[in-house]
Design brief:
Elements (H helix, E strand, L loop, with lengths): L2 E5 L3 H13 L3 E5 L2 H10 L4 E4 L8 H11 L4 E5 L4 H9 L4 E4 L4 H24 L4 E4 L2 E4 L4 E4 L2 E3 L3 H11 L5 E3 H9 L8 H14 L9 E4 L3 E4 L3
Helix pairs in contact: 1-5, 2-3, 4-8, 6-7, 6-8
C-alpha cells in the first residue's frame, strides 16, 4: 500500500485529503506543523508528500527545499498562495506540481496517481535502460545514475529538470511544443500549468548556460516551444 504524508495546518483540509486518498487505497499520515512535518518526511518511507506552504514554525518552501536535497520523493504543493511568483518558487525548489486552493480533491488524487505512475516508470528505467549515456557538445547525461556533467563539472538538477533535459536531448533539432513537453514530463494533458515548462527550462538554462540570453543547448522557438541544438 502506498503511503502519503500530508503536511497541512488546516485540519479540515488535511482530513478531506486523507479521506479521498484512503478511499483510493492509500495509507496516510497527517502533520499540522511544519517542523514536525519535515522531520517525519525525512524519517518516513513515503511514496508522495502533499505540502502546504503557510505552515507554523517551518514554511512549505523550506520544507520542499530540504526534502529535495535529501530525497527524490514526489512532492505536490497545495496552497492558497496563487501568485505566479509563488508557483515559480515552489517548482524551482523541486516540487513536482503546484495546486491552488480551493481545489478538487478528486483532481488531487488523479494527479497523485499520475505522478506516482511516472515516478515508478523512471525508477524501473534506471535499472533497465542499457543506453545509459547521451553525449552532446561537452554535455554528458547518464540516465542510469541520473547525473549530468558539463565540460567535466557535475550539474545538480531536480527530478523534473533531469527528465525534461533528457526528453529534449533525445529529440535533437526537433521542435517540441510546451504541450508535448508538459504531457510527456508531467504525465497529464489537461491538468496543471503549461507555464511550468517555461519555469523548468529557465532553471536548466541557469545551471547550464554561460549566457542564458543566448542559449547553446535549449533554444526557444517563439510561439511554438523548444528545440535542443546539437550544432
Amino acid at each position: 500500500m502506498k503511503k502519503v504524508l500530508i503536511i497541512e495546518d488546516e485540519q479540515s483540509i488535511a482530513e478531506l485529503e486523507r479521506d479521498y486518498l484512503e478511499i483510493e487505497g492509500f495509507e496516510t499520515d497527517i502533520e499540522l506543523n511544519g517542523r514536525t512535518g519535515l522531520q517525519r518526511a525525512l524519517q518516513g518511507n513515503y511514496a508522495m508528500i502533499i505540502l502546504d506552504v503557510m505552515l507554523p514554525e517551518v514554511d512549505g518552501f523550506e520544507i520542499c527545499r530540504t526534502i529535495r536535497n535529501n530525497s527524490d520523493v514526489p512532492i505536490i504543493i497545495v496552497s492558497a498562495k496563487k501568485e505566479d511568483i509563488d508557483k515559480i518558487r515552489g517548482l524551482g525548489l523541486g516540487a513536482d506540481d503546484y495546486m491552488t486552493k480551493p481545489f478538487s480533491p478528486a483532481e488531487l488524487v488523479a494527479r497523485i496517481k499520475s505522478h506516482l505512475a511516472r515516478y515508478n516508470r523512471l525508477v524501473n528505467q534506471r535499472v533497465d535502460d542499457h543506453n545509459e549515456e547521451l553525449k552532446i557538445k561537452g554535455l554528458v547525461i547518464n540516465k542510469n545514475s541520473r547525473r549530468v556533467y558539463l565540460n567535466g563539472q557535475e550539474i545538480q538538477l531536480t527530478n523534473k529538470e533531469f527528465d525534461l533535459l533528457v526528453f529534449l536531448a533525445e529529440n535533437p533539432e526537433r521542435v517540441l511544443s510546451k504541450e508535448q513537453i508538459f504531457e510527456k514530463i508531467w504525465g497529464m494533458n489537461t491538468w496543471g500549468e503549461i507555464t511550468t515548462v517555461a519555469v523548468h527550462i529557465r532553471k536548466i538554462r541557469e545551471k547550464m548556460e554561460e549566457d542564458t540570453s543566448n542559449p547553446q543547448y535549449i533554444e526557444t522557438v517563439w510561439g511554438v516551444g523548444y528545440r535542443f541544438k546539437v550544432s
